[in-house]
Specification:
By secondary structure, this protein is of the alpha+beta class. It is about 40% helix and about 15% strand. β4 and β5 form a beta hairpin. It is globular. The two termini are about 20 Å apart.
Amino acid sequence: MRRDEEPEFANPTLRARLEAFAQGRGEEELLPWVGRLSPLDQRRLREDLAVVLSEPETTGEPLDWREIGNILQEWAEVAGWEDVTLRAGALAPDGAFIVDLRPQDRQALERASPAVQRATAHLLAEFLPYSPTVGFLLPRGRLKKMRDRDLWQLHLPDGYRLRYLVDKAARTVHVVYLGPHPDRDPRGREQNVRAKVKRTSPDEP
């Protein structure tokens, strides 16, 4: 992401809330891990954010959202927070996405370990419905875009993977694969999803 590009959730409301936090007003709903930091570290976090948030006024350049993300990730790690860095549900100005999860995927999830079930349940509730392509909302390395394809992949505990396609026009996240690292290419399901998206969004490229 170039500096002049903004993640899809980067809206004036979020910026205002981060600025309020940098000025000393609490944002426990948005940054639930802040309470785990010492008072000194909380002050340092606010100072780090304040510096980056003030740059557009002094340099005339767009806000550096990548740097904002790096700051939040670093301090969330200091706090020992392993879930979604921000409460993504508070940042969806256009409404939530529907997550299309097949019954067989839900059944496979029921057979997975408790760690996989917890991680997946959190992502289904907090991340995929609101900001499914904003990687810095998650710990580093958790989300990647698959090369040469518009598929996204989430890394889960125990070697599990969650692959999905985002249909922005229909506000739907289609889960293509959920399970252990696939020993075969699940492109049949992917092709079915793409055909479904094309039928429901005929004007999309």
